[in-house]
Design brief:
This protein is an alpha+beta fold. The chain is built from 9 helices and 8 strands. This is DUF1116 domain-containing protein.
């Protein structure tokens, strides 16, 4: 039950985008009996466990897949103004809206602002890139930073700012997910269902905490920080929705 495991990880100090220490432990705990019973040699089992132990990020792609499956189920609902995808390719940022299937609304990819690893400087970084913002689309990651105050050591800022991000994201979402909660905010459900009209009227943009990738392919992650989608994506989406539904 990945949703239950996700909820547990949030209660153990992860936000399940850039901090996955607890989630990786829970996932390998669940997988271990099957790995042992699968009939592989001790050496093969050792390689599996060493691979998992080599990175706390192991559970991250699992959460991404879970979030993608959930948001795909919400896509294609008539009249819906809910964002179902956010993705970036280092050149453009794109989003999809439930009530506008088959369309992407794009704007320029932004610079991720945050601490750099030793030996790197901001001019070494490329623009925002990757598919991991599906976690924020679902309501975790930057939306759940109040569950993971230690994340500020990686992405920058203060604990107070991390908590405020979770509160602020509630202003641009249609509701809360009662199955995935934030203990520090009185077990409030994570802010869920980004509404393009609420973003447009408030001017508040979704917050994404993410890796900073080097501008040269192959170098990899050189830091982490905070980034927002360009407002143009939401302007285009609102206009597209109005045109589609004759508003």
């Amino acid at each position: 039950d990945l949703r239950l495991m996700l909820a547990q990880a949030l209660h153990m100090g992860d936000e399940c985008h850039n901090r996955n220490n607890a989630g990786t432990t829970l996932l390998i705990q669940a997988l271990t009996p099957g790995i042992i019973q699968a009939g592989y040699s001790v050496e093969q089992q050792r390689e599996v466990f060493e691979f998992v132990a080599s990175s706390d990020y192991f559970s991250g792609p699992t959460w991404m897949a879970m979030c993608k499956a959930a948001m795909d189920a919400a896509h294609g609902i008539e009249y819906s103004t809910v964002v179902t995808t956010m993705a970036r390719n280092g050149v453009e940022f794109g989003l999809r809206v439930s009530g506008l299937p088959g369309q992407w609304f794009t704007g320029p990819a932004q610079q991720v602002i945050g601490p750099m690893f030793a030996g790197y400087k901001p001019e070494d970084s490329g623009l925002d890139i990757g598919d991991s913002a599906i976690t924020e689309t679902y309501g975790i990651g930057g939306f759940a930073m109040a569950t993971a105050p230690a994340i500020v050591a990686l992405v920058g800022g203060t604990v107070e700012e991390a908590i405020d991000f979770s509160r602020q994201m509630r202003e641009i979402t249609l509701g809360e997910n009662p199955n995935v909660t934030i203990p520090l905010l009185g077990f409030m459900g994570v802010p869920s269902a980004i509404d393009i009209t609420r973003v447009g009227s408030s001017g508040i943009l979704p917050v994404i905490n993410t890796a900073i990738a080097h501008k040269d392919a192959g170098v990899g992650m050189i830091g982490a920080g905070i980034v927002h989608p360009p407002f143009a994506c939401f302007e285009k989406a609102i206009l597209g929705w109005c045109e589609r539904y004759g508003v």
